[in-house]
Queue: 2 jobs
Job 1
Amino acid sequence: MSSVIGKNIIISVFGESHGEAIGCVIDGLPSGVALDMDKIDFEMKRRAPGRDKTTTPRKEKDKVRILSGVLNGVTTGAPLAAMIENTNTKSGDYKNIMTVPRPSHSDYPAFVKFGGNNDVRGGGHFSARLTAPVVFAGAVAKQILAQKGITVGAHIKRIGDVTDSCFNKNEVTASELERVSSKMFNVIDDGAEAKMRDEIEKYRLDQNSVGGEIECAALGLPVGLGGNMFDTVEGRLSQILFGIPAVKGVSFGLGFDFASADGKAVNDGYCVKDGEVKTLTNNNGGVLGGMTSGAPIIVNVAIKPTPSIAAPQPSVNLDTMENATLEIKGRHDPCILPRAVSVVEAAVALGILDITME
Amino acid sequence: MSSVIGKNIIISVFGESHGEAIGCVIDGLPSGVALDMDKIDFEMKRRAPGRDKTTTPRKEKDKVRILSGVLNGVTTGAPLAAMIENTNTKSGDYKNIMTVPRPSHSDYPAFVKFGGNNDVRGGGHFSARLTAPVVFAGAVAKQILAQKGITVGAHIKRIGDVTDSCFNKNEVTASELERVSSKMFNVIDDGAEAKMRDEIEKYRLDQNSVGGEIECAALGLPVGLGGNMFDTVEGRLSQILFGIPAVKGVSFGLGFDFASADGKAVNDGYCVKDGEVKTLTNNNGGVLGGMTSGAPIIVNVAIKPTPSIAAPQPSVNLDTMENATLEIKGRHDPCILPRAVSVVEAAVALGILDITME
Amino acid sequence: MSSVIGKNIIISVFGESHGEAIGCVIDGLPSGVALDMDKIDFEMKRRAPGRDKTTTPRKEKDKVRILSGVLNGVTTGAPLAAMIENTNTKSGDYKNIMTVPRPSHSDYPAFVKFGGNNDVRGGGHFSARLTAPVVFAGAVAKQILAQKGITVGAHIKRIGDVTDSCFNKNEVTASELERVSSKMFNVIDDGAEAKMRDEIEKYRLDQNSVGGEIECAALGLPVGLGGNMFDTVEGRLSQILFGIPAVKGVSFGLGFDFASADGKAVNDGYCVKDGEVKTLTNNNGGVLGGMTSGAPIIVNVAIKPTPSIAAPQPSVNLDTMENATLEIKGRHDPCILPRAVSVVEAAVALGILDITME
Amino acid sequence: MSSVIGKNIIISVFGESHGEAIGCVIDGLPSGVALDMDKIDFEMKRRAPGRDKTTTPRKEKDKVRILSGVLNGVTTGAPLAAMIENTNTKSGDYKNIMTVPRPSHSDYPAFVKFGGNNDVRGGGHFSARLTAPVVFAGAVAKQILAQKGITVGAHIKRIGDVTDSCFNKNEVTASELERVSSKMFNVIDDGAEAKMRDEIEKYRLDQNSVGGEIECAALGLPVGLGGNMFDTVEGRLSQILFGIPAVKGVSFGLGFDFASADGKAVNDGYCVKDGEVKTLTNNNGGVLGGMTSGAPIIVNVAIKPTPSIAAPQPSVNLDTMENATLEIKGRHDPCILPRAVSVVEAAVALGILDITME
């Protein structure tokens, strides 16, 4: 168990869903960066639940309190610690999961790993609620990246069978990323929102849940960051992204579509444009040999259906070691994609900030 | 640039394709493990080129010389260093890539990163030849894992449009993994080999190349290894796997198919079997909440078409900063999948060994 | 700047002397450990100021609030986060140090490093106040170590010219360590306290300060922990110990007295005692080849005189770049040894806990 | 056991005293640095044995072979691997230490740690011979540091009761460091060499050994490198220095003399000199708050007497678990200080290079 990551910018995340507070410490930030708290609050709102019927009705006030590292709104260079007090927690809802683990959740391996001592209320430290500090840290990272001319943005590429357009891998612009990220439901095509909401509602009414895919882009990175062999941009971003609950796949550029592609069709040739070397296409998603190529970074993230569904499910009773049927009573998102977009953006921003600090 | 990875078992890989030697140091190995050198040699042969027409005709004798860490065939607990002398290198073939970078290769970002000082002959440290020490280290790891009852095996899931069967995610056996890994062309269905060879040949004759996908399984891991948030089995394996040239995507279990799946269909319910908790299915690929669930680990790896193709390609001349056409003369695999299987197996074995040492 | 340390148990310390709060996150703790909060409070009191005239009259209530990682008094295995709200801060006292750096303090290099953005009030993140979270974390570590049969204890070996007895390097007992650690003024000889207090008072009345040395012992470690070359017990403990402000030297066993010693006199021979291998002496301080030898670990820590003295001192005005005379008005310990003992104990306990987790 | 160290420049050391070869991999070096092999050879000679009667008569040809990372004498930016073949090894001399551990050596804890599988011939991986790769890596580091205007040099401060002068802590010059380092017996006062050789000879004739202290200085570092709390210059240098066999103490500036010092006497005041801030004295050894102050770094290293002495010593027979008397037959330095100076310099150079890469 390690909730610490980073080489130059080290994030340590703490908290349990129904404990006193959640938060993080960000170590290694540059000093002298003026933080726009409104922007941070906006990012927190993107992730927060209770906005509408596509998300759980839990209304957490994800009010961030900064404990250190910021003086008069400017980073001091000392570790930036932030906490969010937990409120509005209904622990009773989760009582039976102590003995009957939820399928496809962390419950059973966590029970074995921690010998039953872990805080199971709301998933404890494994709760998706722990992505709130990640979003906070990512919001800080995005502001520092902005000063370096780097923009990060993401959108829902698909939910079930409903798809959005994709970013133009080679020519997506910062303003397009900002346009998409500034929405509360992050899609490129305005019309995709209603269709995706309908898709989610369909699964909700069926006591079911649905997965999806998020596409994230990052622009403005210099050529040659990261590196072979084990310090690749891909590997470093993956390690953070797989820290987001429900992420089951990470790919770059064409990703798994490369498997049925041929070199003539997908090799990214070069040209000289305005005196600079540019790729003609960007099927590699901005990473070559583990290093930034100068083209936009394009990363795809596969997200599984929320494992918590209302329908009865087969499980076991860990006390009696007999088969059991589990009915989850709590409040759960039938699809986490709408909220997860900000988390993916945050994770990518944190990873890229770490890489740029070398 | 860091070619070092691992927390408990730390691998440091060195070498350049046409330099004096390549190799690695493996730090943190347990003492007292008798190494079967024949098994190691077999793994080296699986990766080595020149076996048949699906691979490059370069005939490297990947003869490993162990420099330290082994005494009378048994590990001493001191760092295990191994080297492979480079022979049969034709540096002349690569002369023009110093000024004209190969599309979709590391050449251009490496040129920028290293200011032209990097060894470009054969790709230098970015060459796929550097996977030889990884395979060696993985072969050592597999023998240590075997003593813990853990088996790792992989196969070519598809090349272009030709597919193999998949492992039974929940019930694949160690003997099945061993059967598949013991082949020189690693497929589950014996009949798939000929079809895949034909597919590769088709692209080769067209001066083209083709990508594919590898599926790797690991059996016998105890429940609860790894962990949330940033120490996930998925993240740790990904960081190593993305160190393999041409890998562009990593996913677990259903991977990107989760995006169009629903919870009722894919949640992995539990049952009690022979007094133990088992999952009824294994769509999560053996990892829940970042931890091992007890089910087999199933990881999918997307591999892009070999970027080095014989057909002319658009590039630039970095000296004159003008557009240029590149014709690659060297000897290259039209598809690296047949050789890459052993590398993926090795990377997964190394990652899992590191995780089991906690 | 990194306030993060540890391989298996990772501590991230945050806070600034006059900011909102200080604290830490401890990642990687075992689950199921019942914490005795009274023992933790006692450790916090040992370090806290304002106890008597040997220490600064600032009366901070170092009340620790645990935010996560503990449920019903038992560790959950999730990161343990703790915070201490800052109160009773008189920032006015430190106003002039923004332009006139205090000699032998971090002020000047911190000014250069952080471009004047760091929080200088009370020393900011460089304040000795940041040792409070270290003591908290160490108090937790000591309780976990106690379950493994490991005891850590320290005492003031000398202040200026006044010395205490030393631990018997080879035969010091756990009960002796507990006896010494349970005092509020940690000396072996009861009579040493009054002499040391007199010594400190002498320097205080002279607007001066005085240094000293702390000796710390750890008992009950199994043989063979740690290791050559860069994972030595000595190196790992040093890295934490040098994180304590004012520590300028760390040595083991005879330490610098080895320089004038000869092998015949100081080699630690072996004997068999009760069927076990024991050292006849322990001049090496329990570490051989970087590994634990089974004998008590004996570490010596040199602490410099408090740099903040009331007497006028030569400095510079960083605004005008002219020489200046500094008169420090604040409240400062003329000798930090009485409070620093608990910090050294905590640092050693944290380091040893990390080493034992392998 | 980890023989890997560094954050930006990562060194992995391998080899066993009587194995096939020893060496190291240096990962993260900048590209484009022309290496002067004569300077590297000179450093290797300083450490090599067999120069005269103060050292063991073993005549190892420490001929370094560079395997990767250097092309046409210039670093490529890829990992630099180097190996030294082992020759002239008389393994027979060490046969009885398998059962009778040498006092004050790593033998016994290594036996327990590795279950008897470690290579005990010549101390195996714990041998001081493993400092040869460290000296090589340090020689590379010194050349890179020289390009940044940083000079590192060390001398024997004392051996037994014979002392050399000390560096002027605040005003030592690069040319003085170079003068001292260029000697084969590194002392400041030319006259000290003969006295120290006599002292060593005295102990040798008595079948005994003697310890000493080395002082190392580093000039030219910018202000503000390193940092509080656990990333201190002191802590990082210590972790490397304690990797050198026989090092038992590390201190900075006045070190343990701070214990009896007072603030008025030892505080390092500031002045403006040629428009720059300078310290009036440098009792802190160039480090304040864990950061470089701009004054020379002064580090003191305590080295214990060579544990291998010719006189009979009390030990135990690990087979029979009975007391035993050990007579060491091999060839051993009665004092390692003359050879250890280059190792300390190398370790400090490596640590500082790592710190300057941030």
Note: The first strand of chain A starts at residue 4 and ends at 5.
Job 2
Amino acid sequence: MRNEFHDALDGLTADLGDMCGRAGAMMRSATMALLEAESSEADRLQVDLKRLTSLGAAVHDRAYSLLALQAPVARDLRTLVAALHIAADADRMGALAAHVARTAKRRYPDCAVPPEVRDLFDQMGVVAVDLAALTQSAVLACDAEEAERVSAGDDRMDDLHRQLFARVITDRWQHGPTAAADVVLVGRFYERFADHAVEIARRVYFQATGTHLGAASSRL
Amino acid sequence: MRNEFHDALDGLTADLGDMCGRAGAMMRSATMALLEAESSEADRLQVDLKRLTSLGAAVHDRAYSLLALQAPVARDLRTLVAALHIAADADRMGALAAHVARTAKRRYPDCAVPPEVRDLFDQMGVVAVDLAALTQSAVLACDAEEAERVSAGDDRMDDLHRQLFARVITDRWQHGPTAAADVVLVGRFYERFADHAVEIARRVYFQATGTHLGAASSRL
């Protein structure tokens, strides 16, 4: 039987899905800014991040009140604790997207990304946005199988990140230390964005099943 | 009046303090390995990280059981939710220390850190270890004032990180892209280590006071 408490849980879930969607949209804009040497996105993403953070703060406060007032157990308890973690991870994903856009702005009107790694950032951007979308639907459906698929997407990101690093640290790199520094750091931002998506997926998996996904317990 | 529940909370706090202490010790070893071009620390820190992670998993499971069985409110509730977050942040600090040691191993027998940034990594190592120690005592004492002092230490880390980046991206950098990539990434590991210490401090502050420390709500 539905009641106000479960309506409140549904409201939290909807907001968390919204946060994942916003983080993905932010990374899409940030990747465009990076590849097209846009400077204006950085300030816009800073505004988006403020909004994302305040959404997370609202989720945190509501989850806390529900924990205190409803004394939930079993899956309801897992849902509320997961909400606290997921809000933090989705906020972090948005912050990493903002970092990417800031790097693009710092090098404007130049492009922070040299031609020979452009394809990798293009792919990392696609993988990051896909992961955010997959995470969003896993959160909204509280679906353990979708949560498992996020980990697979993260393997792809790790592979791209390894390729990126390998291209920078060869003697053929002709773009100097500034470009090398930008490329490895921005690559790290994409990799961490994907890691936080996986963290969210693991929370969803635990929320749905009460058991930990794969090596999830090793990342508690 | 004391009871088993509060003894269990004290046990969680002791384990969380232990985790912060271990993360600090790991970063001390990692910094030595980085500056002295040691390769053996990397494997030892991998073992330390496994132990840290299993401690965190145990804290997580006990905190969950207490949430479910005791239906805590007010400060007890904040303590248990903080424990879930602090265990995750302390585990992450240990993982970052392991990353530093792995970079040292990757360049062995060379030193991943060129002479002209050695002083900065030396200082970043000191600040990181100090922050971990300060965080440990804030956790153990659940002391809001000590928690506030952690943020000040983080400002120092951010300043060192800025100096590091500035030294790499000058035309005077003579060490090629591999060293540039290593230096900015390892610098990032130290900066993130400090950020997680601040996250823990914010959790402690909220646990102790029920209010958010400074901009803490923006990092939920």
Note: The first helix of chain B runs from residue 4 to 35.
